[in-house]
Design goal:
By secondary structure, this protein is mainly α. It has 25 helices and two strands.
Length: 473
């Protein structure tokens, strides 16, 4: 396993160096040459990006018809108004809707509920404000401030030095160091918090960050990075079953998992994938748990190294490392990637079984773990079962009730909808080939659809500029 320097989990290998210096590779949204400011007026895409790789990847995003989007919003509002009942009795339907993608206008609220962040916030009223009012440990505050301009510098929210986005990011990360002083701050937490702030107010982002760090990825950001090393070995072991060819290649060149999967896992692929794919992965990850992160890693490794033809261009360690640092665009496109993630049969039981096996090997070679992390929760249902919330904790303020056209659908319309759903399920067994590789797969996108643009862009701007929890719906 890779050698780890003691001191809040800084890896002494290239992969964690990328987290420290913001990466000189192909990570989307990472550009060390930017100084955190975007000169002049630039076109803002529907995700809020004014340039960079994220904006150029717009062509790969799946376009959802406005009528379908409105229907999905109504369904999600219905679920959120009776969240405990849906999670208890219709969790499979919640999971299917997350796999289809959470409507952009409700993504922040959905993530808050899926992670249990809503319950933590209600049960700790005033906690964030109390932490926010404190000065914080100067050691951590100084490191955080130096990292602020590196987080998605081409996004309108974080483009300006000292702007509201960077200020909120500082508040959230500083509050976390005060909430978990024994853990402090790890640089890989910054992009996680930044993604959350793009979709919700600072207080909500703080509690979702807490849930991700404590429930979904426990130990990832602790001293020594022992948890990420263990998960690297789990990924490597699962790869043996998913793609023996890729596994033999990595074994042949003695490429340790932590060299290529550290940034993937610690940043939940937020610095790796095109933005449309990031959001779809996060929708599933926050619903189903860390198995989604493992599946993404396995899909990318299998796609890049899964056949002898693909291995012809990477005969050595260096070539393989370069290939994994710059994953080919066609393997990251939203439609292909989401389909492969859903189809890949890697379950919580597979991960837990391998976790116990790797833990035994770790103890034999390294002794006991230095950081005792809480048990990992595999998704929203497990979190809710472990800490059952009250109806008061889940109550929306104000409650939004939509007179949905779904309720007045005719029998023919319902039958047509059922037919569409049946088709979707039936098509799961089909293999979707990756899009053909082109010389430049990230061509500048054309004019966004007039039906989609007002919903996404205007909703985003309203959410960032308002303290009301419901204005970004």
């Amino acid at each position: 396993m890779a050698k780890i320097e003691q001191g809040n989990g800084r890896v002494s290998r290239d992969s964690e160096d990328k987290l420290r210096d913001n990466g000189n590779g192909s990570s989307h949204g990472s550009d060390p040459e930017t100084n955190g400011s975007v000169p002049g007026e630039k076109e803002v895409d529907k995700y809020g990006f004014t340039g960079g790789a994220q904006q150029r990847c717009g062509e790969s995003a799946v376009q959802i018809p406005t009528e379908v989007l409105r229907q999905r919003e109504a369904k999600w509002l219905e679920m959120l108004n009776s969240w405990d009942k849906w999670m208890a009795k219709k969790h499979k339907k919640v999971k299917e809707r997350c796999q289809k993608g959470v409507p952009p206008s409700l993504r922040g609220r959905a993530w808050l509920y899926l992670t249990g962040g809503k319950v933590r916030r209600e049960q700790n009223q005033g906690k964030f404000q109390a932490l926010d009012s404190q000065q914080g440990d100067p050691k951590w505050v100084d490191i955080i401030e130096r990292d602020l301009h590196r987080q998605f510098p081409f996004h309108e929210m974080f483009a300006a030095r000292g702007g509201h986005g960077q200020q909120d990011l500082l508040r959230v990360l500083k509050a976390y160091t005060l909430h978990r002083p024994e853990e402090g701050y790890c640089q890989a937490q910054a992009p996680i918090a930044a993604v959350l702030l793009m979709h919700m107010p600072a207080e909500d982002a703080f509690w979702v960050l807490v849930q991700i760090c404590e429930k979904y990825l426990p130990g990832y950001y602790s001293t020594g990075l022992e948890a990420i090393q263990l998960d690297g070995e789990i990924l490597y072991a699962l790869l043996r079953r998913v793609s023996p060819t890729a596994h033999r290649h990595l074994k042949k060149h003695k490429m340790e998992p932590i060299l290529y999967m550290t940034e993937w896992f610690m940043c939940a692929f937020s610095r790796t994938l095109p933005w449309a794919s990031v959001l779809r992965v996060w929708d599933m990850f926050l619903c189903e748990g860390v198995k989604i992160i493992f599946r993404v890693g396995l899909v990318l490794l299998k796609s890049m190294l899964g056949s002898q033809d693909k291995l012809k261009t990477c005969q050595g360690l260096y070539e393989t490392m370069e290939l994994l640092r710059a994953v080919r665009p066609q393997y990251m496109q939203e439609g292909f990637l989401v389909h492969e993630i859903i189809e890949l049969e890697v379950s919580e039981k597979d991960i837990e079984r391998e976790h116990h096996a790797q833990l035994r090997r770790w103890k034999e070679t390294h002794g006991d773990l230095h950081c005792k992390s809480p048990p990992r929760m595999h998704g929203a249902k497990a979190i809710m079962a472990a800490e059952p919330p009250s109806r008061q904790d889940l109550r929306q303020m104000p409650t939004i009730i939509v007179e949905s056209s779904l309720a007045s659908q005719t029998g023919g319309q319902r039958a047509e909808g059922a037919k569409e759903n049946g088709k979707t399920k039936g098509e799961k067994s089909k293999t979707i080939p990756p899009p053909q590789e082109t010389v430049n797969s990230y061509l500048p996108p054309g004019d966004p659809s007039p039906l989609v643009k007002p919903v996404a862009v205007q909703g985003s701007k309203e959410s960032l500029g308002s303290a009301e929890h419901d204005t970004y719906l």
